[in-house]
Amino acid sequence: MLALYVRDLKLGIRAGGGALVGILFFLAVIATVPFAIGPELTLLARIGPAMLWTGALLASLLGLDRLFQADREDGSLDLLVLAAERHMLPLIVLLKCLAHWTASVLPLVIAAPVLGILLNMDPLANAATTLTLLVGSPAVTFVGAIGAAVAVTLPRGGLLVSVLILPLVIPVLIFGVSTAYASVNDPAPFLPPFLILCALTLFFTVLGPLAASAALRAARG
Amino acid sequence: MRLTAQDLGAERGGERIFSGLHFAIGAGEALLVTGPNGAGKSTLLQVLCGLLPAAEGTILLEGAGEEWPTVAAAAHYLGHGNAMKPAMSVEENLRFWREFNGEPCLEVDEALEEVGLGSLGYLPFSTLSTGQRRRAAIARLLVSWRPIWLLDEPTAGLDARSETRFTALMEAHRADGGLIIAATHWPLHLQDVKELVLGDAA
Fold it and tell me: Could B96 and A7 be called an inter-chain contact, meaning their C-beta atoms sit closer than 8 Å?
């Protein structure tokens, strides 16, 4: 099973730099915000966590449609589905998601504090936002797997995947941003929204692979 | 081990492709599925391994023991795609399938030697020619053991010499007690095979 994770990780890093595209998109979004908002440092610092979350969310949607499509095109997906007797299909999907997250989304989380500086965020808010991204972004990938599995037979499913899963990831966005704000705005408590964010990630860790494998099975019929 | 199909039928997009198929093959036997384009050869293989549901009839795998509970678990499926990643080397691809499929059989370099790619394992899969790609995909059948081989046009793109070599590999698999079901347009030069003709020729 580990072999699948290693293979997907290698492919994610090697093949055409999917991770780099995400980071460049993230950088482009964040770097343009200060020009659009104007030189109001307090305003920038206030919208910082929200902008980082929105940017990271959209950037992490970029390569998602290829999650299963590349495997479908070369015939690997059939073999992965057939191996269900040996390895559970939801586990296979889970590992593919984890590999995708490590190769394409983790770099965004690592880049987030650097980009936060561009938005005049103070160190505490920056650290809190990065932490919430680290905890919340796997949920986006797992929900994305559902969309990617539903759209696996469509040749240009990229935008469809994003539109399909956006409603489902809105709660993650809301709690991610509110946790980040809670760390800097004193009266608001930090722990409750943070724990809900953790719960959302755990919930989608289970639901995402299960739903995605059901969709993959149905896509055959 | 015995694979039996009774009264088997399949649909594709609401259209009945074939129905009422009967066949049974045992260990060491081979079944050639022939017929014109669109007769349902690929569909039959996909139904057999469980990628597509059967519209009617049953598929039975008997005497395979607990190790091989279903046809999908007991079978290597070689479809139209080669299931290899262009960005990885041939060796890396095969090593992945060997680990992922379990039941290791031949070593990766031995398997590459068997299909005549012994010196090319380090190359990225994308640089291979069509026939070499097919041979690499055939090497996947050798790196982990499965009693049943379901082959969909296995010799597509192979030259005459590789075809002979592949025939020898299939005979060796039958001698080890394996079953082979191959959908093909070309006679594979196998000894005493059963033949199943699909489509209007039947």
Answer: yes
Contact flag B88-A7 (C-beta cutoff 8 Å): yes
Q: pLDDT of A95-137, one tens digit each?
A: 999 999 999 999 999 999 999 998 888 899 999 999 999 999 9
Domain ranges of chain B: 2-197
Question: Given CA atoms A218, A219, B2, B4 in this order, what sign does their dihedral have?
Answer: positive
**Which CATH number does the domain B2-197 belong to among 3.40.50.300, 3.40.50.2300, 3.40.50.620, 1.10.150.20?**
3.40.50.300
ipTM, 2 dp? 0.89
Domain ranges across chain A? 2-220
Sequence-ordered list of residues with C-beta below 8 angstroms from that of B60, at least 6 positions apart, any chain: B2, B3, B4, B5, B6
Closest CA of chain A from B123, distance in Å: 15
Residues of chain A with Cβ-Cβ distance to B52 below 8 Å are: 220-221
- In this complex, do A82 and B88 lie within 8 Å of one another by their Cβ atoms? no
Give the separation between CA A66 and CA A72, rounded to whole angstroms: 9
